[in-house]
Design brief:
The structure is a single chain. 32% of the residues lie in helices and 25% in strands. The protein is α+β, with helices and mostly antiparallel strands and 408 residues long. The radius of gyration is 22 Å and the shape is globular.
Amino acid sequence: MPVNLPTLSASSLLPINGVTLGFAEAHIRKPNRKDVLVIQLAEGSHVAGVFTQNRFCAAPVIVCKKHLASNSEIRALVVNTGNANAGTGESGLQHANQSCDALARLLNLKSEQVLPFSTGVILEPLPVDKIIAHLPTAIKNAQADNWLNAAQAIMTTDIVPKATSRQLSIGGKTVTITGMSKGSGMIHPNMATMLGYLATDAVISKQALDAIIHYAVNKSFNCITVDGDTSTNDSFIMMATNLAGHAEVTTSSEDFIALRDAMTDVAIELAQAIVRDGEGATKFMTIQVEAGKNEAECRKVAYAIAHSPLIKTAFFASDPNLGRILAAIGYAGIDDLDVSKLSLYLGDVLVSENGGIAASYKEAQGAAIMKEAEILVRVVLNRGEEAATVWTCDFSYDYVKINADYRS
């Protein structure tokens, strides 16, 4: 089961004025499961997106980027699970465009006002006819309070749906933020490593929304990894319906930081939920690297630790084989690193200093911490003032089973 991830209730997910969500069961890969989602946005909404940098990016990613770049007013999103429409060449692009065309006709929109998303198996043709046939159902059952059903409709190997809500006050008006994400395996950000959708009724300029999404993603989805594999379909979308009734928030507004931070908090919770639901995960690990020359080198060290199969399997076994962490720090790629100056902590316990094991460290201390469900690994480089944090999980037997049987 996911690591300390609370069970969602529909009532905990707050509707956003100007957003409706509808779903359908199109039997794309498996019967009797929600696998098509349609999100509709009120006129006047602003939309921003960031996407995977995998060079083999999926057809829907290409179409999304094109439609956003057209400066058309985005009014709808269509998402399918069970098939990624990736590695599908020209026909994949045609299928992504066909899904946009079909939804646009039903909603009296232009095709470029629709953004398509797919997730699932790579290198198989998208069954676009199934998706199109079930769009009317998704439109018919669209509701503002359908966030839980929507979060279920975008799941693949996820064990549980992932969503959350926040509220804050801007100009005396209550502003609501609700978001959802999916992801469990093939998780390593180079933006964004999953599907994520965050909506708010806040009144935000397009420039401010663009600034917020890039800030938020670098504090959240660009700080997680399950297995080091950057997916072909990763997308993170922010939507602002501009219906909350307060003055427009711009990058120079007094309320900009408060809104940015609230939306970032939602993104962080959604990102961490992906790691907590990592395929077969039993441990949630925070890798904190401090006192580096720059953030980039701190991230290098954090990801070297977070990606190591040797470290991740040791955490699964609750085995304090902590020399593996030192080895990862050493090969992280900092050529002038003085290992005699760094310190390694497991939780609050000093494990290593002066290039070797700390005199105060006892293996029983490490073993006790390794048995916990949530573990902090802290590396102090002692060469500067910058820091970075990455969240990851362990590798269990189930990770192999899930991925070995993924297509069956």
